[in-house]
Structures are given as C-alpha cells and as structure tokens.
Design brief:
The chain folds into 2 domains: 3-68, no CATH class; 72-256, no CATH class. It is 73% helix and 0% strand. It has 11 helices and no strands. The structure holds fe (ii) ion (2 copies).
Length: 257
C-alpha cells in the first residue's frame, strides 16, 4: 500500500473524539463544516461525512491546512500605508466577530454542566463569556467608527486631496496620543476569563470538551494580543505621524490665508 493511502485511510477511519483529542484546531474546522464534535464524538470522520453529505477530501484538505497555517506575513504590515493596515485590522475584527467568537460562544453554551468535572468553571464561563463578547464588540465598533475613520480622513486630507479643513475640528477633539494611551490601558480584555479558568489550567482527567474550550480561549487571547500589538506598535505610530503632518499642513494654510 502507498504511504499516502495509509495516511488517507488512517484519518478517515478515526473517531471524531480521537481526531479532536490529537489537535484541538480540528474541532473548529469541523464546526465550519457543520459538525459539532461533541455531537458525533464516537463516529468516524468517514461516517459523519457520509451522514452529512460532506466531501471528505475537501474536509481533509481543510484539516491539514488549518494545522499548517502560519502568520509571518503580519510582520510586513509595518511597510504598508496606513489605509492598508486599517483594512487588515478591520478584516481581523470581522474574523473575530463573525467566526471565532460565535464558535467559542457555541462551545461554551454547549458545555454540559452535569457531565464536566469543571462544573463551576463551566457555569462561570456561561455567565461571563456573553458579557465579554458584548464589551469586545463595543470596543471594535468604537475603534472602527471613531479612530479608524479619523485616521483615514487624515490620510486622505494629506495624501489625496491636500485639504485638511474637513478634519480641523476632529484634530482638536480626538488626540491620537490620548487614544493610544487609553488603548494600552484596556489591553488586557481577557483577564476575567483567565481568572475563571485559573490561567487555562487543566487537570489530567479533564474531559475533551473543556480541553477544547480552554485551548480555543487561549488561542483567541493570543490572537487578541497579536492584534492589539499591531494597533499599538504599527497603527498608532503611523497615526501619530499623520496627526503631526495634518497639524503642520493646517498651520501652513492658515499662514498663507
Ligand atoms: Fe482592533
Ligand atoms: Fe483595539
């Protein structure tokens, strides 16, 4: 038998619970294919795909690429103009709100209090997680509506139409330095969740569902840290420079009028 056929047979015949136990990232891929791992834990991948009419080869490719995917390209962002950095950040917001948070919310909602040894943690998460999501979404929309819009307006005023008069009042109202300071203070959004989960501590006998929840929460926190780092270290410095240039441009215009 060819080696790749062996691998193929292997993954297709695996039970969902074993697959997810091997790598928690698989649970999220299965979720996007409409398979909640905790509902099909004792079935093989092949059985579930047949039952739900899923193209097993396509699913396998997605499982493989989810494990491989890296994020090195983020480093290139520093060389991008600010409008592209903002597009990237908005795209990440979208992924958080439309994919990662709904997935986490479903995972937590479906934790069965009576089946887990982490009963108290599960109850606390069920209560706190929706509040965290609400706060987080508020942060994102405020950022997009106020800060990002202002940065784009400064960028256009300087580089597109050379007319800073439209941003004259906004420049006075919204200080980038102040925003940057406030943003760093509110950086630790998942502190409460870390406390509830005792820093995602799991005992050796923890069940698979709670393991997946902790792994996904931890992964989400890492994504948030990376996201905030791009905002703090790339976006705000670029915005500060734009602000200085916009003020200089206004002062020059005033001098010539
Ligand atoms: Fe953000
Ligand atoms: Fe932010």
């Amino acid at each position: 038998m060819l080696r790749n056929e062996e691998v193929k047979v292997d993954i297709f015949q695996k039970k969902i619970t074993d697959l997810v136990g091997e790598n928690y990232v698989y649970a999220s891929v299965l979720y996007y294919f409409g398979i909640k791992f905790y509902d099909y834990s004792e079935k093989t991948l092949e059985e579930v795909c047949a039952e739900k009419g899923i193209n097993i080869q396509h699913l396998k490719e997605n499982l493989e690429s989810a494990v491989k995917s890296g994020d090195e390209y983020d480093l290139q962002l520093i060389a991008y103009p600010v409008d592209l950095v903002i597009e990237y950040l908005k795209h990440t917001h979208h992924i958080f709100v439309k994919q990662q948070l709904p997935y986490l919310a479903r995972l937590i909602e479906n934790l069965e209090i009576n089946k887990t040894r982490y009963r108290q943690v599960a109850e606390d998460l069920k209560f706190v997680f929706p509040l965290f999501v609400e706060d987080f979404i508020h942060h994102i929309y405020e950022e997009e509506d106020s800060l990002f819009t202002h940065i784009i307006a400064m960028y256009k005023a300087i580089y597109v139409n050379g007319n800073p008069s439209q941003i004259f009042f906004k420049l006075d109202e919204l200080s980038i330095e102040k925003c940057a300071g406030e943003h760093e203070i509110h950086d630790d959004e998942m502190k409460g969740i870390r406390e509830i989960t005792r820093n995602y501590f799991l005992s050796a006998d923890a069940d698979l569902h709670i393991r997946v929840v902790f792994a996904e929460l931890q992964c989400f926190e890492e994504n948030l840290i990376k996201h905030a780092k791009i905002e703090n270290e790339i976006l705000f410095p670029k915005a500060l420079m734009l602000e200085r240039e916009a003020i200089k441009l206004i002062q020059e215009k005033l001098r010539f009028n």
